[in-house]
Predict the 3D structure of the following.
Amino acid sequence: MNCQECEDYIDAYIDNELEVAATILVKQHLRGCSRCQQLLEARKAVGSLLGNPQVRFEVPDSLPGKIQSVLPASRSDVKQRSGSWFVIPWFSVSLAMAATIAVMLSLVFLNQGWIFDRSRANALAEEVVSSHVRSLLATHLFDVPSTDQHTVKPWFDGKLKFAPPVHDFSERGFRLTGGRLDYFNGREVAALVYQRNKHIINLFIWPSESGRNTAAETFTKDGYNVSHWERGGFAFWAVSDVNAEDLRAFAGLEMEQS
Amino acid sequence: MNDEQKRARFESLLLPLMNDAYNLARWLMKNQEDAEDMVQEAYLRAFRFFASFHEGTNCRSWFLRIVRNTCYTALGARELKQNQVPLDSEIDEIEDTAPLPSVSLSKKATVESVREAIAALPVDFREVVVLRELEGLSYKDISEVSGVPIGTVMSRLARARRQLYLLLADRKQDDQL
């Protein structure tokens, strides 16, 4: 790493926003470069001055009241209305509560699995997207840069407990450009990197828990398109800033192969 | 969700964010009166668009984006033009590589001098500094609030910190004279 690169990364380094591999490179460079050390100190000095909590502005006393007044239906209205509970005869209260509980229970039983899957899929999507962003931010896309699937696939041997399927789709406009190890969802996963024109697609692969085959589901998360499917015993997550149509096409190609 | 539940949910999620909202508005507008108006306006907008907030996503980013956009609208095209970083200076890849003056910033720099230095930054830079240094947002959240890519967040933050260093270092030298 040279001084220019170090300078480009120094803020992300201080803010703990830099990916591990790049962090190590910055550290190595700093050890041998007094100019960049000085830069680091300057940044830290600014940071500690700004870190003084008194620099922030506190809410003026008048503001909370003003906000309550601009919002429709003030809180006191709500309180008054909820007070009307007490005029309802007690038997109807208990009846209503019993009915409510029955409905809630049935909903819980019906939806439990579904809700669980959804929130979990959401959390995974979050991780997938941030891993994609990190890989671009730190320009740490590859551990093994290669356009040859026969180089990339064996590279994973011994590094992962599974052998991810690796295919190149250059002739269909999705060029395999390399692979790397990534870590999330509490395990090591394979990340394959594809290029579509100028856009990068990260494809994350790990053994699926359900072992099912599912159709690709494509959605948008934080401005990125994400596609998820399970096939051949693996879970696949593709994420990219290519348009949704291209990502679906890519998912289709992958699914044909496995 | 009926109106009362909506209202209760809205209050429980958004009222705790009043400090963050006010601090951001105060820094963008540079005065208390305008900042209070902006925060009220932002709460009203947020209430109207509360249906578009997805439960489980980051509420703070969602609301700060509304605050930020409310402020920018009020600041208006004219003032924005004056304060915005000229486009070419942001695209310009050549960093000012002149060595930094070897002044150690005094820990005793007053709150007032630090505030003045932040206030002197162009609004785009001020925004990232406030979101990162005072609000502690991640780059991803800053990118959501300000609507610019993460790379731009990073480069603005770098330039803003450099500028702050120079401003505060100058002040230190003045103080010594």
Summary: Chain B touches chain A through 52 residues (CB under 8 Å). The mean pLDDT of chain B is 82. Chain B has two domains: 1-83, 85-177. Chain B has nine helices and no strands.
